[in-house]
Design brief:
Six copies of one chain form a homohexamer. Chain A has helices at about 25-30, 65-80, 85, 95-115; strands at about 1-15, 40-50, 80, 120-125, 130-135. By secondary structure, chain A is an alpha+beta fold. Chain A has one domain: Tetrahydropterin Synthase, Chain A (2-Layer Sandwich), CATH 3.30.479. The longest helix of chain A has 18 residues, at about 95-115. The relative contact order of chain A is 0.21. The interface of A and B includes residues 12, 32, 40, 41 and 80 of A. Strand 1 of chain A pairs antiparallel with strand 5 (about 130-135) of chain D, so a sheet runs across the interface.
Chain lengths: ~140, ~140, ~140, ~140, ~140, ~140
C-alpha cells in the first residue's frame, strides 16, 4: 500500500459563530475568531490517497488527475471566497477547520474512488501553529 | 551597522477595490481579490531596524522592546480583523500589501526612533508567492 | 474522529550523558551531544489530540485551551532552561528527545483528558533533520 | 514504542517512461515528466524507524548510525545521479516516486533490523506539493 | 519606492561542464555537478521589481501580470526541461546558477520595463543551502 | 556583480550576561536569555560573498570551497559547543547574535578574500522570529 499526498493552498475569509447566539456569547466561546467583520487565512490542504501502484504505470494514481479533482471540487469553489457565505459545501455549518476537513472529505470521496484509489486523509493547516486531520 | 529583524504574524480579511467603481471594474483590475464578500490571509511581517550595538549590552535594541512595539501598534490592531473596515491606520486606503507596508512604516517609525535605533525595512508576505518590501 | 494539532516552540540547553560513566565513554556513545559545557536547540513541539467535534461548537477542543495547557505545563517550565538541571519532569532521565517526548506525554495526559478529548501524539523536532514521535 | 525520523536530501535527474512505448504514448500518460532529455528534483527523504528506547542509552537507535546507514546505502548512490541510468536499486523500474520509496525500503530494511529497531516508514517529497509514503 | 517580489518554481536537469575539457577535468572543477548523465533540482526563483505604487490602484504592478511575464518567458521554457540542451536563453553557457540568474534577468527586463516598473533582483535557490542573487 | 549565499547550521548553548553585574541586573536587561544554567539554539547562518563570475568556470566562487571555509573556521568550532565558554573568537564578548555576526565576519573575511571574492553579508537566525545581518 502506497500513500500519495497532494498539497494545494487557498486564501479565504471566515468567522466562527452561531447565528442564534449573541455577539458576546460568540466571543466568549470563539474568541477573536468570531469577529463579525470577518478575518481570513492562507489555508494549506493536503489530500492523501492510498492504493497499490499499478504495474503498468508505476504509480497509485496520476497526480495530475488528483490535482484536477482537488482544483475542480475544492480550490475553485473556496479560494478568495468567504467560507461562511459563498461555499456551497459549508452551508449551514460552523466554519471551524474541523467542519471544513469533514466537508472536503465528503466532496472528494466519490471522485477519488472513481479512479480506483481510496481517500485516506484530509489535513488542513490554518496557521503554522494549528492544524486538523480527518481520516473519514 | 547591524540590522536586526523581528518576525510577527497576523490573520486578517481584506478586499481590494475602489468604492467609486462598479463591481465589474473592480473585478477587471483586482481580479478575485476584489470579491465583495471578503477573503483573507495569514500575513507575515518582518520589521528590520538598524543601529550600532551598544558597548554596554552588545545589542542594537532589546528585541523584547521591538516585539512589544510591533504588538502594541500593529498586531493587536490588525490580527483577526478586517483591514478595510476596522484598522485605523488603513482608513481611506486601498487594502493592497503595498499600502499596508507604507502604513505600518508610518505607525512604527516614531516608536523605533525613540529607542535610538532607525527603522530600516518593512517586509510583508501575503502568500508564499507574493511579498512587498518598503524602506521608507 | 478528528485529530487536532497545536505547535509550540522552546529553546533549551541539554547534554546527553550518564553520570556514572567517564567523559570518554559518554563521548563514545553520545558523540558531540555529550559536551560537558552543554549545547542547545530550538525545539519544535506538536501536540495532537483526538475526539469528535461537538455539535454545539463544531470543534474537538478549544485550541486556546489546548495552547494554555501546553504553555502552563511544558513551555513555561522548559523554555530558555537547561533540560538536565532545571526541568522537574526530566529529573533523573537521560536528556534524549525520546525521554522528553515520553515525559511531555505524561505531563499533558491528565490535563487533556479533563477536557473530554484524548491525547494522541507528541512529536518533537530537535533539528530540521531529527525528530521523534510518541503515541503513548 | 517510539518513532524516530531522520531527514536526508538528494538531487537527481529522472524521466518517467516505458521503453516499449512511443514518445507520444509516454507523454500522454506521464506528461512533461516523460521529457526524453531528463529533468530533475531536490528530493527530501524521511526514514522513520521504531522501537523501545533502551534503558542504558535512552534512545531507540543512535541517530548517527541511522544517518550513516542512509548515506552509505542511499544518498551516496543517488545524489547528483540519474535515477534511470545510474542507480542500481532502480534498474528495470519506472522511476516514479512510488517505486523509489519501495526500493529504498528494500535497501534499508536489513541494515535497520541489524540494529534491533524496525523500519516503519519511507517518505519522499519530490516537490513541495507532491509526496509519497510507504510502510512496507 | 516599493519592492514587489513574485516567487515561482521549476524542476529541471542540468550538468556543469565545459565541452572542450575531459571528464576528469570537469570533475576536478565542478565535482559531482559535472556528472555526464545529468542530475537535477527543484529551483526556486524570486523576481523582484520596484516602482512607486500608482494612486489609482495602490500597487506597483499587477502581480498577475508579473506572474504571467515570468510564466511565459521563463517557467514554460525551463520547467521539466534540460537546461543545457533545451533552454534557448542558456545556449552556449555553462549551466551554473550564476549564468541562469543573469540570463533570466536579460529575458525579463524588456517585459518588466514595458509595464512601467523596473526589474530589481533575480534570486535563485538551487538547494536549501545554495542561492544566487543578481541585480543587473 | 553576483551574490552567492551558502547556508550552514549549528546548535550551541549560550547565555547573555555581564560578569560584573548581579543575576538580578542581568535578568532585568537580558530577561530569560540570562539564565545562569544556559539555554541554546539551532542557529542558521547565511554567508554571502560577491564577485563577477569567471569566464572560465561561470561561477563567482566554487561553492564547495566556500562551504569548506565556513566549516573549518566556524561550524567545527561552534557546533554543539557553549558559545560563552568554548568558542575562541567569542572570548570576552557578550554572546548576543549581533556580536556573533561581527565575530564570524572577522573570522571569514581573510579566507574569502584569498579566493578573489569579497565577503558581503553575515546573516544569523537565532529563532524563526529573530535574525541579524551584518555587512562589515
Amino acid at each position: 500500500m502506497i500513500y500519495l499526498t497532494r498539497r494545494e493552498r487557498f486564501c479565504a475569509a471566515h468567522r466562527m459563530f452561531r447565528e442564534e447566539w449573541s455577539d458576546e456569547d460568540n466571543h466568549r466561546i470563539f474568541g477573536k475568531c468570531s469577529n463579525p467583520n470577518w478575518h481570513g487565512h492562507n489555508y494549506t490542504l493536503w489530500v492523501t490517497v492510498k492504493g497499490e501502484p499499478s504495474e503498468e504505470y508505476g504509480f497509485v494514481m496520476n497526480i495530475n488527475i488528483l490535482k484536477q479533482i482537488i482544483l475542480d471540487n475544492i480550490i475553485n469553489k473556496i479560494d478568495h471566497k468567504n467560507i461562511n457565505l459563498e461555499v456551497d459545501f459549508m452551508k449551514g455549518k460552523i466554519a471551524t477547520t474541523e467542519s471544513l476537513a469533514m466537508a472536503i472529505w465528503n466532496e472528494l470521496v466519490p471522485f477519488v474512488e472513481k479512479t480506483g484509489a481510496s481517500l485516506h486523509c484530509i489535513k488542513i493547516e490554518e496557521t503554522e501553529n494549528n492544524s486538523i486531520e480527518y481520516y473519514g
